[in-house]
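Target chain:
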Amino acid sequence: MTASILVVPLTADHADEVVAIHRAGIDEGNATFETTAPSWERFDAAKLPEHRFAAVDETGRVLGWVAVTRVSDRCAYAGVVEHSVYVHPDARGRGVASALLKALVESTEAAGIWTVQSGIFPENTASLAVHERAGFRIIGIRERIGRHHGVWRDVILVERRSGTVQ
C-alpha cells in the first residue's frame, strides 16, 4: 500500500462513488455478467458489512472497493464467501486492488472464514494477476457459462483458502 492509499470500512458515505466505480467496470465489459450497477440499497443489502472496504486517497476520494456475499445460507458453507473488487479506471496500477484484497483477507481470516472465492473473465488478466499475488489460485474454468452481450463467456474460478482457519 502506498502512502496515498488508505483502506477504510466501506459505508453509505461512499455510496455514490462505489456505484460509479461499479458502473465503470460494467461498462468496460470484462468485470461481470451484470449489465447495470445495482442501487446502493441493493448493494448494501447484499454485501456483508464486516467484510467490505473502500480504498481512498488523501482527499477521501474512493479509488476502489472490495466486498463479499455469502455463497449459501446452508451452515456447511458458513465460512465461504464470494468477493468482488473494483478499482476506478484512473487509479489502476497503484496497488489499490492489492491493498483492498489484503484488508479483505485479514478481515475474513479474523472472522473464521476459510474460503474466499470469485469468478473472473479470462480476458481480465490484471485481475487474475493481482489475485494470484494475493494468494488466490485457479481452481477451474467454467466454459461458456453465460452469455454477455450475446457472446458466450468463460469464467475462471479462483479461491483463497485460509492457512489459519481449521
Observations:
- Residues 23 and 37 are 5 Å apart (CA to CA).
